[in-house]
TrEMBL record:
<dbReference type="InterPro" id="IPR020855">
    <property type="entry name" value="Ureohydrolase_Mn_BS"/>
</dbReference>
<dbReference type="GO" id="GO:0005634">
    <property type="term" value="C:nucleus"/>
</dbReference>
<feature type="binding site">
    <location>
        <position position="253"/>
    </location>
    <ligand>
        <name>Mn(2+)</name>
    </ligand>
</feature>
<feature type="binding site">
    <location>
        <position position="122"/>
    </location>
    <ligand>
        <name>Mn(2+)</name>
    </ligand>
</feature>
<dbReference type="InterPro" id="IPR014033">
    <property type="entry name" value="Arginase"/>
</dbReference>
<dbReference type="InterPro" id="IPR006035">
    <property type="entry name" value="Ureohydrolase"/>
</dbReference>
<dbReference type="GO" id="GO:0005829">
    <property type="term" value="C:cytosol"/>
</dbReference>
<feature type="binding site">
    <location>
        <position position="255"/>
    </location>
    <ligand>
        <name>Mn(2+)</name>
    </ligand>
</feature>
<keyword id="KW-0479">Metal-binding</keyword>
<protein>
    <recommendedName>
        <fullName>Arginase</fullName>
        <ecNumber>3.5.3.1</ecNumber>
    </recommendedName>
</protein>
<feature type="binding site">
    <location>
        <position position="149"/>
    </location>
    <ligand>
        <name>Mn(2+)</name>
    </ligand>
</feature>
<keyword id="KW-0464">Manganese</keyword>
<feature type="binding site">
    <location>
        <position position="145"/>
    </location>
    <ligand>
        <name>Mn(2+)</name>
    </ligand>
</feature>
<dbReference type="Pfam" id="PF00491">
    <property type="entry name" value="Arginase"/>
</dbReference>
<feature type="compositionally biased region" description="Basic residues">
    <location>
        <begin position="15"/>
        <end position="25"/>
    </location>
</feature>
<feature type="region of interest" description="Disordered">
    <location>
        <begin position="14"/>
        <end position="46"/>
    </location>
</feature>
<comment type="similarity">
    <text>Belongs to the arginase family.</text>
</comment>
């Protein structure tokens, strides 16, 4: 009896595992490199895509049973006379680059992949989310970042567009955002109720006002401390699925993670997510089965003090992406794994 039951349990667990792997096989990543840095003033962030690839992203995704297509790096036109518009810097370059990226992400989605946009600075979320939405319709957006990146062109004190991308994407802010040169193609495509922030700890007064005004769901580092990351993710997914379950776009700024782990980034802020909290976020979103597009941005090797700083930042970026595609910390094995016979 006992042995029969054990066999039954074994059969059950084998079939569950099979099912799980079948699910894994359906995943496929369509990778787009966006070596672009003009949404902020620091050079170096354009090396992000190649560094993340060089750290073995594609091979490791394949090893965990994920189909991968690399669409290569986008190229961006130089823009002459890109003078500030009001306070906003390099609007023409940012607008043009994002238009190109939007088309590229749309094509990746039409090919049936989960899009993976490797930045580059966070201004690229404009094109990535716009293109994702153009292909699949309404999205839920999970924005993991130290910053809210929701300044309008008029509330921004720096004029750097990497601190503004959400303002161009939200329906609710449309009337508050001036049309910049090379931005006329951008149509708002995200509703405030479909946006969740995780990891905030450096929010400008204008941004804080906007978040309250629009009633945006925010899990700042205070909530992560108070609730723990597991509860934060549970509440995030409950909140986003109270109405219709929409495809999820994860926009992950590496500066969400604590600078002790990911120091090679343009605007580090102390008191961030641990490595484990970051990975947990990606694992949880992967398990929803709704993750449809991912950005990994703001890895900047020139901002690391040492080679170790850069390595730690890049390898964390890779691990976050692996978590998005089914890597489990308990261990993994290929679908076709067979035990060697004696
Ligand atoms: Mn950001």
């Amino acid at each position: 009896m006992r042995s029969a039951r054990t066999l039954q349990q074994l059969a059950l667990s084998v079939s569950r595992r099979h099912h799980h792997h079948h699910h894994h096989q359906e995943r496929s990543a369509g990778i787009i490199g966006a070596p672009f840095s003009k949404g902020q003033p620091r050079g170096g962030v354009e090396s992000g895509p190649d560094l993340i690839r060089a750290a073995g992203l594609l091979q490791r995704l394949q090893e965990q049973g994920c189909a991968v297509k690399d669409y290569g790096n986008l190229t961006f036109e130089e823009v002459a006379d890109d003078e500030p518009v009001g306070r906003v810097k390099r609007a023409r370059a940012v607008g043009g680059a994002n238009q190109r990226l939007s088309e590229a992400v749309r094509a990746v989605k039409k090919d049936g992949h989960t899009s993976v946009m490797l930045g580059g600075d966070h201004s690229l979320a404009i094109g990535s989310i716009h293109g994702h939405s153009a292909a699949v319709g309404e999205l839920s957006v999970v924005w993991v970042d130290a910053h809210a990146d929701i300044n309008t062109a008029l509330t921004s004190t720096t004029g750097n567009i990497h601190g503004q991308p959400m303002s161009y994407l939200l329906h609710e802010l449309h009337a508050k955002v001036p049309v910049l040169p090379n931005f006329s193609w951008v149509k708002p495509c995200v509703s405030a109720k479909d946006l969740v922030y995780i990891g905030l700890r450096d929010v400008d007064p204008g941004e804080h006002y906007i978040l309250e005004l629009l009633g945006v769901k925010v899990f700042s580092m205070s909530e992560v401390d108070k609730l723990g990351v597991a509860r934060v993710m549970e509440e995030t997914c409950d909140y986003l699925s109270t109405r219709v379950k929409k495809p999820i776009h994860l926009s992950f700024d590496i500066d969400a993670i604590d600078p002790s782990v990911t120091p090679a980034t343009g605007t580090p802020v102390v008191g961030g997510l641990t490595y484990r909290e970051g990975v947990y976020i990606t694992e949880h979103l992967c398990q929803t089965g709704l993750l449809s597009g991912v950005d990994l941005v703001e890895v900047n090797p020139l901002r690391g003090q040492t080679e170790q700083d850069v390595q730690s930042t890049v390898s964390t970026a890779v691990d976050l992406l692996l978590g998005c595609f089914g890597r489990r910390r308990e261990g993994n094995h290929p679908t076709d794994y067979r035990l060697p016979e004696p």
